[in-house]
Every structure is written in C-alpha cells, then in structure tokens.
Amino acid sequence: MGEGQSVFCEDPGIQIALGGHPQTFYWFAGCRLHAALYEPTNFLNRVVLRNCDKRHSPVDSPLLDHGSAPACFHDFVLSLCPLFWIRDNPPGSDEKAFGVAVPCACCFDAVDLDFSQRAIPHKQPSMEQDSTVKMNMQAPCQNRWKVAHLIATNFYGGPERQIVGHLKLLDPSQYSGMVFSFLEDAQENDFLKQAKRAGIANIGIHMASPLDLRAWLKLKRQVQSQGVHLLCVHGYKSTVMGAWIRKTSGIPTLAFSRGYTKENLKVDFYQFLDRLALEKVDGVVCVSEGQRRTIEGLGVSPRRAWVVHNAVCTRDVGLDTQQIRSRVLRKFDFPSDVVLCVTAGRLSPEKGHADLLQAIALIGKHAEECRFLICGDGPCRKQLERQAIELNIADRARFIGFREDIEDIYRAMDLLILPSHSEGLPNVLLEAFSFGKTAVATSVGGVPELMEHGRNGLLVAPGKPEFLAGAVIQCVKNQSQRESMGSAARQTVQSRFSFEEQTRRLEAIYAQLLAPEARIA
Predict the structure, then answer these.
(1) Phi, psi of 453 (to 5 degrees)
(2) pLDDT digits (tens, 9 = 90+) for 185-211
(3) Looking at the DSSP assignment, which residues form a beta bridge with residue 201?
(4) Furthest-apart CA pair in the chain: how many Å?
(5) Which H or E element spans position 200?
(6) What is the model's pTM?
(7) Are 450 and 425 in contact, with CB atoms under 8 Å apart?
(8) Which domains does the chain have, with CATH numbers?
(9) Cβ atoms 45, 104 nearer than 8 A
(10) Is residue 372 over pLDDT 80?
(11) How many angstroms separate the Cα of 42 from the Cα of each of 14, 32, 105, 237, 277?
C-alpha cells in the first residue's frame, strides 16, 4: 500500500487510513477478527479494502517471517479462521492468485485482495504425498452426480447413522455418494470406519483444531479434486465450512438442520455462526416441521427449505429377546421382574435429565418395580450424578455412559423416556419404536410428528417432572396398554420413517439443486 492510500471500512462514518508498510494490513485484518470474536455485532460489518499494494505477495510479507515482530499475531490469525485461500484468476489465465480475505460472520462477502503481480501457480495436491489426508475410494463414477456428505465427528451416533443409511440406498444409476470427516488427535474415526464397512467412499482429513486453516484448505481441494457436484453439510462446523466452499468454489451446498444444544457460551457462538451460514447455502433440509419453525423463530431465512424426517431400519424382534433381556438385567444387577426404563442421549441441559431425576424421585413407592438406565455422556454428567445422590435415587437410576450394546438395551427395555426441552426429530425415539417399544416423551420439536398421544406413546409438557412421573407410572402399571402402544409404534416407523422413503425425498431435492436453472448466486 502506498503512502497516503487508505483502507476503508463500511462501519458508518469510519475511515481508517493506514500507510507505509504492507504488514499494516495484516495487523488491521487480525485486529478486526479479534474484535469480532468479543463483539459479535462487529462481525456483521463488512470490511472493504481498496487500493492495496500489489508489490508484495503474502508469501513475501514480513508478517509471515516468524522472526519478525508480529509473527505471533500471524499464528493467532491462522489459528482462528481461513483468512487465506487460493482463488481463480479471471478467465484466460492459467495461474492462481494468492488472496487474503477477512470473513464476515459467515456472510462470506469477504474481500479478496489480489496480489496477482506475484501469482502463484496452482497445483492440485497429490494424495499419495499428503499424509494428512486418508482416503478410501471406490472406482470413479461415470455420468452420475457425485453427492458428498460432510460431518465433523469421530462418533457413530444418530446423525452419522442417518448419513450412512441414506447413502447405501442412493440410486446408483443417478448418483454416487461419498463422505468426508476429520481425524483429530490421532483418534480412530468410527463414522469413517462404518462408512467403509458399508462400501461408501470416504476421506478423512487431519485437523489439529476446530479452526485449523490447513484442514479447511485440504477439504476444499479434496471436494474439488473428487469432482463433487453437491456438498451436503451436517452440524455447525461443517455448515460454516460448506458456506465458505460454496462462496469460493461455486459448488452447490445443502445444509441439514437437526437441532441446537444449550451447552455453553462457546457452543452458542458456534450455533450463531451456523444460523448465519444457513442463509448462505443453496438450501436447508430440516429433520422436522418443528425444527423448521425453530430456525424461522431464530430469524433464519434460508434460500430454500424442505422437511425430510429422520429414518430408521425396522429391527427383527426375534425369539432371542428374552435371552438378551436376561443378560442385560444380570449385567446391571437388576432383578428379573423389574420394569426397565431407559433414556439415551447426550447429557446436556436441553435434554432435560434433571427433570427426569426429579420424576424418578416422585415415582418412588408408586412404582417400586421400576429401574432406570441413563445412557450417554456429556457436560452435565457429574452434576446429574450428584443430583441423583441428593434425591436418594442412585440405587434405582444408573448412569452407564455411552454404550456399544445400546441395541441390546433397547431390546431389553420396557419403556423409553425422553424428557427433552428441545428436539429436532430424535433418533433415539425412532430406534425405540423400531424395536416395538413405546415411550413417554415431552411434546417438543418434531416429537409430535412421530408420536400420537395414547396410540403409540404418551406425550407430556416439557419441564414438568410431575407430569413425566404420572405418565411413567401409567405405563408401568398397565402392561397391556404399554405393549399395544409398542406395536403401534413399530407400525409407525415401518410406514412413514423408512430409509427408502427418506432417500426418495432427498434424491428429489438433489435433482432440484443440480438442475442447470437451479443455481442461485
């Protein structure tokens, strides 16, 4: 930047004049980003940079010299967000210009500073040479749309099962499916392992931290080099990445909205970014009408939106169920004549486990035959365990963590309890229904779209432990009603929540987004 030239910011009435040294810009960009993290409203201010010095490329900038004064600030900026990327030059050029951008709260109207005088030739990465990318690919597809699903996870839970179950049923004459995920802290990625087992092409990208710039860049290059026609993203991290990839590469992107947690302020901030990013992708699939209403109530206005329910495979209820039940009861030292009640899910505030513990205390002697298994883990576990001790119910309510044998527990249980304060469309409820088990659940989110009160389960108001206790007692004391509602529950998922139906509806959405006239700028 020459002496006396300016950098303009669109904050009303503010003009910041910076002069002299090219690294001044980086200090400005970094400070804007730093302020944005602590003042989220500033994140909405778009930064526009003009008259930038083209005599220096970022590679030559003293800022990137770790011996220079602001080197630590360079590390800070790189660790926070993808400021840099390789972008296309105008048509007719066979080189790539190295650019720098200041992201704007997922508005992704980030400014691209062109240092094209020192253009850097673009080279696709060689996967054989890149140890940070782990690939497991099928033979290349011909004349088919390639649909990739991205989720940041190393766990194989509800959303991951939805992705794998769907991709297994994609029409092979029209679509080729694959998945991307991240490899963190040298941990084995259960999701990628299950995708491989199902015969689905998969790529794992090493990520050092949630905002590892190099992982963002490798993901984008992989999406491009694999010839992905449509990128589907799940969860706030993937949605933000997908919106950025869409902005910088033009690949159509479809986001899936499953629900929000209320874990802590950091997660609240990430979910704030997710809601902004949902408006920047080509469309949003909500897993329930309840979730669609939730995002609308939060002010999200996606370009296009659809509702496609979660799905489940109906399990065989064989003659070995009694043997499995006996084995599960022995494992937890429960008598053979108990009524086994189960809740499963992340132990976080919005799941309502504190209400369940109060309900168990209220049930007390009204249903002494009840025993409760609380499956799952999360930030509230220690607090909930203390609450169980204080309520003197620790001998009846067991915290058993994440379970690899959860299907055996579903087969063995008599009743599922879902005390959530918010939900999208809970996979745990679908899974219980698939085993012919009824449930007591709160009437939140998409739960009423699956449960009909008195027919396949009992619905209660959220945040009311006394209502929860009364419904549990009713189910425990009336075995014939419990079994009748369990049979109706199984029929519900067989008729309306199959993976075949889900895949048919998603393929129709893919076709809309991939049609030539569907592209939205």
Answers:
(1) -55, 125
(2) 767 899 999 999 999 999 999 998 877
(3) 178
(4) 85
(5) none
(6) 0.74
(7) yes
(8) 7-118 (no CATH), 133-311+501-518 (3.40.50.2000), 321-497 (3.40.50.2000)
(9) yes
(10) yes
(11) 13, 8, 9, 21, 16
Helix axes 427-434, 158-167, angle to 10 degrees: 70
Listed residue (467, 431, 451, 470) closest to 343, CA to CA: 431
Tokens of 106: 């997922």
Sheet holding 253-257, edge to edge: 133-136, 201-206, 175-183, 145-151, 230-234, 253-257, 283-286, 305-307
Q: Give per-residue pLDDT as tens, 437-455.
A: 999 999 999 999 999 999 9
Q: Tell me the two tokens of residue 193.
A: 């392992």
Query: Which two tokens mark 325?
Result: 């039940």
**pLDDT (mean) for 59-85:** 37
Q: Please calculate the CA angle 138-140-145 and round it to the nearest 5 degrees.
A: 110
- N- to C-terminal Cα separation, the chain: 31
Cα-based torsion angle of the residue sequence 111, 114, 120, 126 in order, rounded to the nearest 10 degrees: 20
For 103-174, list the strands marked E by DSSP.
Answer: 113-114, 133-136, 145-151
For residue 326 the two structure tokens come to 């006996």
Query: Could you tell me if 163 and 179 are in contact, meaning their C-beta atoms sit under 8 angstroms apart?
Result: yes
Spatial separation of the C-alpha atoms in residues 175 and 143, rounded to whole Å: 9
Residue 181 contacts residue 204 (beta carbons within 8 Å): yes
Give 219's pLDDT tier (boundaries 50, 70, 90): very high
Of the ranges 26-40, 349-363, 482-496, which one carries the lowest mean pLDDT score? Answer: 26-40
12-26, 252-266, 303-317, 484-498 — which one is most confidently predicted on average? 484-498
CB-CB contact of 97 with 120 (8 Å): yes
- For 126, counting Cβ atoms within 10 Å of its Cβ (0-12 exposed, 13-18 middle, 19+ buried), the class is exposed
Question: CA 517 to CA 514: how far, in whole Å?
Answer: 8
- Is residue 25 within 8 A of residue 1, CB to CB? The reply is yes
Q: Taking Cα atoms as reference points, which of 229, 141, 222, 128 lies closest to residue 181?
A: 222
pLDDT number for residue 320: 81
